[in-house]
Amino acid sequence: MAKTVDYNASNKVAYKGLMSYAKPHTKTFLAVFGCIIVAITADLLQPYLVKVAIDDHLMKGDKSASTLLVIAGIYLLLSVCGFVFTYLQNNFLQNAGQSIVAAIRKQLFRHITRQSMSYFDRVPSGSLITHVSSDTETLNSFFSQVLLSVLRDGLTLVFIIALMFHLDVRLTLYCLILIPIIALIAISFRSYMRMTYQITRTNLSRLVAFVAENLSGMRIIQVFHQEKEQQRQFDDRNQTYFKSNMREIRTNVLFNRSFDMLGNLSVAFVTWLGGNAVLGHMIPFGVLFAFITYIRQFFQPINSITQQWNTLQSATVSMNRIWSIFETNPEVQDAKGAREVDASQVRGKIDFDRVKFAYSDGVPVIHHLDLHVKAGEMIGIVGTTGAGKSSLISLLCRFYDVQQGSVSIDGTDVRNIPQHTLHRLIGLVQQEPYLYSGSIIDNVRLFDETISRERVMKACRMVGADTLVMRMKDGYDTVLSERGSGLSAGERQLISFARIIVFQPKILILDEATANLDSHSEQLIQRALAVVSEGRTTLVIAHRLSTIMNADRIIVMRQGEIVEEGTHRQLLALGGYYEELYRHSQGEHEEHEELELDELEDFDDDEPSTANASAGGIAAAASPGGGCSSRR
Ligand SMILES: Nc1ncnc2c1ncn2[C@@H]1O[C@H](COP(=O)(O)OP(=O)(O)OP(=O)(O)O)[C@@H](O)[C@H]1O
User: Fold this and answer.
1) Tell me, what's the pLDDT at 600?
2) Which of 127, 173, 195, 298 has the most CB atoms around its CB within 10 Å?
3) Where are the beta strands (DSSP E) in 140-263?
4) How far is CA 283 from CA 250, 269, 443, in A?
5) Would the CB of 122 count as within 6 Å of ligand 1?
6) Looking at this predicted complex, what is its ipTM?
């Protein structure tokens, strides 16, 4: 019971929200209403005009051709009028509907991009894509189909019934007996049609999700020879979708044909009843003609209105989904007292004070951590997988808020710095730098046209990316494909380093930026790093110790805590985890590796075919990192 109340309440909120977007288009909707009235009147007057021609002229023996010509002329004018106003009505309505949807889509995208990272942890990106694309499009069908049908078909019904009463009250009352029968058919079909519709939509989303998943994992599918299995799974889903689609189509056809049948039965009924009335001289022949025409037209709007039920249902679901996003506020928000910081005055001192943090699952990943970084210092961060290195960085960027303690820059808690200012202070380079489909110039200056071309080129020269760019077909104007897929990992990194030079952040963070690079690219990046880290506080997370060996200080993390701290030399002398890592990187653990290889061979013997494929796959998947090969 409580659920129903919530559902109704959220429907109300969603409809209210939609109406606020529709309000600026009130005049257009009034114009649509006017066009509908004119178009319906023009359409429905046509049979009445024929009735006038039959009863007032032909049946009375009026031989004047000019009167009939005038009637035919008016008939033609009415048709043209109906055509023109239907066209205008559709145009106005589409214009208003599409404008509303475009405004909602724009607002939705803006709202989503303002959400905190915890939101993206919870909500899969696939469903967000659906909300921005197809849910907003479904909203348009609310205007272009549901609203139009309710107005046009509803008014048509009212006009037809009024005209029928005007022509003959008794015959009209007989015809209205049909209404309960129509309602019965419509209701019994409606719930079944809704079910078939929902099943089809679910099967379609399963199919689309499967294709999307396959496309993004194509490499793995091919490496593991999974094409046949994937094809089989696709066939299953495709077949299920085909069957549900056919069932939906069959139900629709059956519903429409039932309505047609009912229409024909009513015509037969009116012909018999009205024919007797004409023979008994109770009604003129023209009235019977007009009646038969109207009773035919009577069914079409009812059919059309009942068909809109499904559209209304899906539009309501989409509306609810969109408004539930609008109602979600970002968890990380600017504090009330947040004040602008003069970026040029920021020195880059960072303090993590007794920081405790857990993601939404509540499991602590950082435990009372203290870390104090001097302005301009370069800190290397190493540690076990899942130790909390990236989480630490996320807290500095304020992608999440700490649960206890504080993170501050130059003594100001990051919660008191407006987010847009904070993000301007920090430059983040990740393992997979994000490149847009656009030119090199735009990728470096992130489409900020106030940054000159010369500045971009200078930045590329500084990090050593210019030789790479000059080799490209159109130099700096070369348009990169989606995510820069035409470039190697090292080349993408160099471009992202040039961004840092251009945007001049006070704090630089490298999160596994060299993990995917071969030793040559790593050298290039090392050189670029030396340039970009100059005068900046720099935090470098790396599994490869060569990247951080020259750092002013290295911290070693394990299970959310700093377990060792010092320079490379100091940590080696300490003989702890860092020293162990270092020995690993120097290839002193060959014995251990041999053991692993023996285990793999045993595994091969157990399951010859798949194990071979897997071993090949793992090697292939692991080799880009280069970690395995450097250890040998
Ligand atoms: N978005 C998230 N939601 C929930 N838990 C998360 C999330 N991101 C990371 N974690 C968990 O937090 C812990 C620390 O993860 P984090 O990514 O900070 O480790 P890391 O030291 O950077 O690891 P790696 O070296 O493997 O990148 C891990 O146990 C991880 O599973």
Assistant:
1) 42
2) 298
3) none
4) 42, 16, 80
5) no
6) 0.96
Instruction: Answer yes or no: is the C-beta of 506 below 6 A from any ligand 1 atom.
Output: no
Position 593 scores a pLDDT of 46
Ligand 1: which of 119, 359, 369 to mutate, most ligand atoms within 8 Å of CB?
359
For residues 318 and 340, give the distance between their C-alpha atoms in angstroms, rounded to a whole number: 39
On the 0-12 / 13-18 / 19+ scale of CB atoms within 10 A, 154 is middle
Ligand 1 contact via 367 beta carbon (within 6 Å): no
Contact 578, 571 (CB under 8 A): yes
Strand pairing class (404-409; 350-358): antiparallel
Ligand 1 atom having least distance to the Cα of 557: 21
Mutate to test the pocket of ligand 1, among 123, 356, 365, 392 (most ligand atoms within 8 A of CB): 365
Q: How far apart are CA 112 and CA 329, in angstroms?
A: 10
Closest C-alpha to 488, from 463, 465, 505: 465
pLDDT of 7 reads 57
Whether 506 and 347 have beta carbons less than 8 Å apart is answered as yes
Structure-token match 């000019």, residue found: 66
Nearest CA to ligand 1 atom 25: 385
User: In the numeric block, which tokens belong to residue 367?
Assistant: 């435990």
Question: What's residue 632's pLDDT?
Answer: 24
Structure-token match 């005038």, residue found:
70
pLDDT at 29: 93
Q: What angle do CA 332, 448, 128 make, to 5 degrees?
A: 45
Closest by CA position to 139, among listed 186, 102, 87, 185: 102
pLDDT of 616: 30
Using a 6 Å cutoff on CB, does residue 390 contact ligand 1?
Answer: yes
| Of residues 586, 592, 555, the one with CA closest to residue 571 | 555
Task: Check pocket membership of 388 for ligand 1, CB cut-off 6 A.
Answer: yes
Closest to 152 (Cα-Cα) out of 304, 21, 295, 377: 304
Low-confidence ranges of the chain (pLDDT < 70): 1-8, 62, 482-486, 515-518, 521, 587-632
- Residue pair 525/556 in contact (Cβ under 8 Å)? The answer is no
Q: What is the torsional sign of CA 287, 290, 292, 294?
A: negative
At 195 the pLDDT is 84
pLDDT of residue 623: 30
Using CA atoms, how far apart are residues 273 and 102, in angstroms rounded to an integer? Answer: 53
CA of 291 to the centre of ligand 1 (A): 75
Place of tokens 């194509």: 218
Per-residue pLDDT at 621: 29
Secondary structure (3-state) at 224: coil
